[in-house]
Amino acid sequence: MTDAASTPGMITLPSDFLLGASTAAYQIEGGAADGGRAASIWDTFSHTAGKTAGGATGDVASDHYHRASEDLDIIASLQLDAYRFSISWSRVMPAGEGPVNETGLAFYSDLVDGLIERGIEPVVTLNHWDLPQALEDNYGGWRGRETAVAFEKYAETVGAALGDRVAIWSTHNEPWNNSFAGYGHGVFAPGLHSHADALRAAHHLNLSHGLGVQALRRTITRPDAKVSVALNIFRVEAETPADADAARRFDAVANRVFTGPMLCGAYPEDLILDTRHITDWEFVLPGDTQICHQPLDLLGINYYEIMHVRAARDVVDHPEGGTAFPGSEYVELFRPPDAEKTAMGWTVEAHGLEDHLLALSRDFPGLPLMVMENGAAFADTVSVVDGKQIVDDNERVAYLAGHLAATCRARQRGADVRG
Is residue 232 part of a domain? Predict the structure, then answer.
């Protein structure tokens, strides 16, 4: 392996390192009403005035539902090892439970076959935020324990259909966004504002993860298939030693609310103490945390930037009501003003990924890691070269190369990161 930091432009990956691309169903598929698909909470949210930039929806998106074969050819042309995609629950089970839409399931079966034919490993995420609207209507979505039970049946259905071919499974992608951004802060679907509901939703996502892992273990038959979850475990760094308690509070409600039950079998005591004025945690029933705590083959990590934390100076409420997360009154997140930024204003700090992977390998020894998401938004400026229109994409190339090099350095330093 060559260190890209010492050899500019050159990153040599080990032969067992998996390199791929990642998408999400609602972000790319389109075909919102085609093939028996029903609405998800993101359909409802994006069609609500003022919720998305310019009123954008996923009705068409990249039209992947109708152009899957073309998209797979593009992936193959990039010579990638794997493709991670999510399954639209409401395309497979329009009501979120009950009858299976065979047309929808066949779409994903054909997609898996198309990947394998091109020598690309299929990596499946069962839930990438787009909960069937029917489950939100009937049970309050992730606020309802019934949704966790429905997820088990959904996982069982998809596992039975695709489990002979899929290489890696993830139960959820970023359940923090499902719960705290969706039910607490209101900036993601379903757009609600209750910290108590966000904590309740977080628990039912943890519970559904455990039930989903059990369902996959019962149904998948590919001998080398791996089961995982993709968490946006934040790299939390306090500005000064005096900000350590603010960092602890944020780490509890952002990270350990999921890693506690999923990976350690219990909710952290400080999280419960910090939030006892919000909820009494009565929704955690005897035996729940044991269900949440299922053996995993991989831990998926989504990394974009370091979360710089200091003790709150001023509390700014979201204009629609409600702060971003429980404990916001004690915690301030900030971005260093001199740091390089993406078009979204996120910081570019590749060294944070290296440090993060090393820390996670120490925290969870014996659990291999995989970076499931990383990337950046930059302006697509079109230039004309030799009569052809091109996007001079140097910033994005540099971002990806820097983070891939950081991943390789972490691996060289002992982090068990597989791709």
Answer: yes
